Amino acid sequence: MNLWKMELIHLFRSWRGWTLFGVFILASVLSIVIGVFIERANDHFSYAEALDIYMVSSIVGTLLFVGIVVSSLAFDSDKDSSIFLRTRFPLKQILLTKLLIYFPLSEILFFMGFAVTLIVGLIIFDTADSLSLSWFLWGTFLQWLSGLFYVSLMLFTSSIFRGSVASVLITLAVLIGIPLI
Question: CA-to-CA distance for 158 and 29, rounded, in angstroms?
Answer without folding.
Answer: 33
